[in-house]
């Protein structure tokens, strides 16, 4: 049993690098011993959850959740795991770091097995399905066309390659800054530039196998350049499991969204009614 606030907290852990958690932990650690009490953990939970760009709750709903965090009525499973049944234990950062690493690893391995159909390798088509699973962009059909036409049958991705890509996705903010440098310079993002930006943002390299797959999917103009802005949007939706909602910039964007969702609703209604109009 976990609370909804804890669910958002755990979801954020899956999408952020460990450095941010360590900074927040140290800010709450008044004694400098890298240990926090239960009441301080609620503050940590709130800080980490709010640094994410999930827009799934209104302001008053968030305030309500904060009140629940300050005065919890019951001990959740997560609280008992960290602080014991009576809440008297202290949580050391090393224990928290180990928990976050184990959580990330377990989720990655579960998703790998799910999309690889239980195999020890993932077909590139399966990787594309994992990558695009929560995507709802206008170019989704184009991406799938690229998958069918550009990816050769029988090619696969290993678990280690998959994990390295997941590690990259926890550094999207740093990677986005690197991509902006290319945009400001009006330079196209080719494979070599993309590979260098990943290394700068994460300190690690992605395999050429992964890079080649990503470029074949997201090269919309067939010019060997990445459409990086939409690529970042796809990755945010993937990492946030469909809960990330970008802010609308204008009333025109709002009505565009309304129109799009209305058409989707009509299509779904006709589909359920067994009609073939669309």
Automatic annotation (TrEMBL):
EF-hand domain mapped to chain residues: 206-241
SMART domains with a match to the protein in the record: EFh
Listed InterPro entries: EF-hand-dom_pair (IPR011992), EF_hand_dom (IPR002048), MICU1/2/3 (IPR039800)
Gene Ontology process terms (BP): calcium import into the mitochondrion; mitochondrial calcium ion homeostasis
GO molecular function: calcium ion binding
Keywords: Disulfide bond, Membrane, Mitochondrion, Mitochondrion inner membrane, Repeat, Transit peptide
Lineage top rank: taxon: Eukaryota
Record-level GO cellular component terms: mitochondrial intermembrane space; uniplex complex
Compartments where found: Mitochondrion inner membrane; Mitochondrion intermembrane space
Keyword Membrane in annotation: yes
Name of the protein: EF-hand domain-containing protein
